[in-house]
Amino acid sequence: MEQATYLEWLNSAYENEFQTDNPTGKSCQDCHMSRDYRDENLGVDLASLATRIAAIQDETYPEAENLAELRDLTVKARPEGFARHNFRGLNLFLVEMFNQFDDILGVRKFDFMTGSMRDIEHAKADFLRQARNDVADVSISTHWTDAGVLEADVTIVNKVGHRFPSGVGFRRAVLAVEVVETGTDGAADRIVWASGRVNEAGVLVDERGEPLPSEFFETNAEGKQVYQPHYEVITSPSQVQIYETLLWSAKHKFTTSFLHGCSVVKDNRLLPRGWKKEGPNPALTGHFLEATWPKGRATQDPRYGDSSGSDHVQYRMTLPEGIERDRVMVKAELFYQAIPPYFLKQIFDASPKGNAAQRLHFLCGNANLDGTPIENWKLPVARDEATPK
Predict the structure, then answer these.
(1) Measuring CA to CA, which residue among 210, 187, 188 is closest to residue 197?
(2) CA distance 120 to 102
(3) Is 171 exposed, middle or buried (0-12, 13-18, 19+ CB in 10 A)?
(4) Taking burial as the number of CB atoms within 10 A of a residue's CB, which of 133, 176, 186, 239 is the most buried?
(5) Are strands 245-248 and 379-386 parallel, antiparallel or unpaired?
(6) For residue range 292-349, what is the model confidence (pLDDT) as tens digits?
(7) Which is nearest to 301 in space by CA: 201, 234, 206, 380?
């Protein structure tokens, strides 16, 4: 079953359909139809939104012939009860394409009703607020072992009422961990160990900057496509914790096609708080309950499936010789990709001469993300850093 966001919410601490008096219950509307509006950049902080109760040619429209009298045109305002739809999906990548390629995509950047040219700018700021405040938390603690190995314990907490990522299965969240030796005398910091690094195209790379074999499911010596499984412990830069869904076709090949996907090889997306394998109520059963279960190695990770809505990954890192311990800093970041590189490659490979695929290839190849919040095709969600003890 694909795109089971509602069922994921139903099997969480936030559902209020089986337990209608659930003290932690939050409906979909509670999170995705906000009744307030806040924008720090604009200095706006409204506890409720007032709106007219009807959209007609009222007294705010330009003067015209044969209008009714003013008392019949005046529309009363409803001071409260209005809600805005907030289904963002964190797809800031699409919004940026609207901003840069509005003519190709047919998007009007000028609001003919208000005259504003800043609607996309405001939308981007809204997406960033959600990404930074409402999605996930990351915390890290780190220490040296007696053997001189650097260990880091990273905890990721899901703050949303369903899996993260949710919706279409090609979305992914990546946990990136870097060990940095801070510079001295004005010298730049130096990365001495890293897992989850990307290049300018958002492709996960190794320490040499080469794409990881798992990034495009390369075939190994055994004739099998390689991928990144769910990890409890990471010991190599070539291992990356990716929260995602991976599907096999009937030919046991990885696919992002909605039509060709036959079986789930991996689903370790972050579970919501309160998730239980047996579900919240006997009424949720069969395929509907199974749609909320993880798949692959994540099913064997007791910490991942403990109903806390979080995951824990330990990094055991052997650093190069000559590193000065008192200058070492460990950084952890969870970032999000709505359209990861392997998904785009599968589209381009499947229809290299198709007009839509060629247009998408042009947009992605010419999008300038330098200096934007999604530079290198990744949207940072949460981060933390620590000095080893």
Answers:
(1) 210
(2) 11
(3) buried
(4) 176
(5) unpaired
(6) 999 999 999 999 999 999 999 999 999 999 999 999 999 999 999 999 999 999 999 9
(7) 234
Tokens 């950049």 sit at which residue? Answer: 41
Report phi then psi at 195, rounded to 5: -130, 130
Looking at the chain, how many residues does it have? Answer: 389
User: What are 24-61's pLDDT values in tens digits?
Assistant: 999 999 999 988 888 888 888 989 988 888 888 888 88
Give 85-140 pLDDT, tens digit per residue.
888 889 999 999 999 999 999 988 887 777 888 888 888 998 999 999 999 999 99
Cite the DSSP H helix spans in the chain.
5-10, 28-32, 70-73, 92-100, 102-105, 119-133, 286-290, 341-350, 355-366
Q: Are strands 190-195 and 136-144 parallel, antiparallel or unpaired?
A: unpaired
For the chain, the structural domain boundaries read: 134-386
Query: pTM score, two decimals?
Result: 0.93
d(CA 174, CA 165): 10
3-state secondary structure at position 240: coil
Tokens 């785009």 belong to residue = 344
Q: Are strands 310-317 and 233-234 parallel, antiparallel or unpaired?
A: parallel
Of all residues in the chain, the percent with pLDDT exceeding 90 is 78
The confidence score (pLDDT) of residue 119 equals 87
Q: How far apart are CA 138 and CA 140, in angstroms?
A: 7
The token pair that represents 7 in the structure block: 């069922």
Q: Could you give the CA distance from residue 382 to residue 138 in angstroms, rounded to a whole number?
A: 6
Closest CA to 297 of 313, 315, 319, 281: 313
Q: Which residues of 134-163 are buried (b: 16+ CB within 10 A; e: fewer)?
A: ebbebbbebeeeeeeebbbebbbbbbbbbb
